């Protein structure tokens, strides 16, 4: 990755009308409905943006949208990139750097995850308070990283405290049940074994997924305040583990998504 590549991506988007967005939003698996809330949308498909990776997962749409939510300029990533698709961590996090160069000052991330904490149920929403990186690498482990920020990034508080407090207040006000916990990020694409779920619980994870952590690391590298929400789509009880049903996971994500949209819209409003 070079500054020149980033500049080419940003220049293309600015010419399309992506004008100084304030907030960036990354939408996870099965969580694409927020785009319906964007006013005056401008679209840029990933395969048209210079140096951008391409989305390969069938339920990830693959476009960047610019417009207004609650009268604030936003840029929304519909379809993200994952290690399990064969990308490297620089590809996975490239869009975060592009959104930052466009001017975003805050970043919201959503994902679909499995509930490792058995007090959490499918259909719940979890606010990420911390995470465990089990992806076996770092998006900052490249030779010229110092051109983009400090090599050694503090991760003592990766998720912005102020925005988390605001989300807690919004959830209470909207009568949305909000869990809070630790997200473990694995490579995938296979789901976990019973033994792996037991391991995750011992490690202190409340939920597990295959995304988000690389983007969060890069946001911290850029000193970009970030907040993340998991929509819990399945319950990972190693003693009663049923074969996974991806279609059901997508359906539960879709049914729970309106709560996430409400939280994100209200958060945009109060920032």
UniProtKB/TrEMBL annotation:
It holds the Pfam family PNP_UDP_1. InterPro entries: Nucleoside_phosphorylase_d, Nucleoside_phosphorylase_sf, Pur_Nuc_Pase_Ino/Guo-sp, Purine_phosphorylase. Gene3D superfamilies: Nucleoside phosphorylase domain (3.40.50.1580). Pathway: Purine metabolism; purine nucleoside salvage. The keyword DNA-binding does not apply. It is an enzyme of class 2 (transferase). One of its GO terms (molecular function) is purine-nucleoside phosphorylase activity. Residues 23-268 form the Nucleoside phosphorylase domain. SUPFAM superfamilies: Purine and uridine phosphorylases. Its EC number is 2.4.2.1. Keywords: Glycosyltransferase, Transferase. NCBIfam families: PNPH, PNPH-PUNA-XAPA, PRK08202.1. Belongs to the PNP/MTAP phosphorylase family. The purine nucleoside phosphorylases catalyze the phosphorolytic breakdown of the N-glycosidic bond in the beta-(deoxy)ribonucleoside molecules, with the formation of the corresponding free purine bases and pentose-1-phosphate. This is Purine nucleoside phosphorylase.
């Amino acid at each position: 990755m070079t500054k020149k590549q980033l500049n080419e991506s940003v220049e293309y988007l600015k010419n399309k009308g992506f004008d100084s967005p304030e907030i960036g939003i990354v939408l996870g698996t099965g969580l694409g409905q927020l785009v319906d809330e964007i006013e005056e949308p401008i679209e840029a498909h990933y395969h048209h943006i210079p140096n951008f990776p391409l989305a390969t997962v069938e339920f990830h749409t693959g476009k960047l949208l610019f417009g207004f939510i609650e009268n604030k300029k936003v840029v929304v990533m519909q379809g993200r990139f994952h290690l399990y698709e064969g990308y490297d961590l620089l590809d996975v996090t490239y869009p975060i750097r592009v959104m930052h160069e466009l001017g975003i000052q805050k970043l919201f991330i959503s994902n679909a995850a499995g509930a490792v904490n058995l007090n959490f149920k499918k259909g719940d929403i979890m606010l990420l308070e911390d995470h465990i990186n089990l992806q076996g690498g770092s998006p900052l482990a490249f030779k010229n990283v110092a051109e983009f920020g400090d090599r050694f990034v503090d991760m003592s508080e990766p998720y912005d405290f102020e925005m988390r407090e605001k989300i807690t207040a919004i959830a209470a006000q909207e009568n949305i049940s909000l869990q809070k916990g630790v997200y473990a990020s694995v490579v995938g694409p296979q789901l976990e074994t019973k033994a792996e779920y037991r391991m995750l619980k011992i490690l202190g994870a409340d939920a597990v997924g295959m995304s988000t952590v690389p983007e969060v690391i890069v946001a911290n590298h850029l000193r970009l305040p970030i907040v993340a929400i998991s929509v819990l789509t399945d319950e990972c009880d190693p003693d009663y583990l049923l074969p996974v049903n991806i279609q059901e996971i997508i359906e539960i994500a879709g049914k729970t998504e309106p709560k996430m949209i409400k939280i994100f819209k209200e958060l945009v409003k109060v920032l």
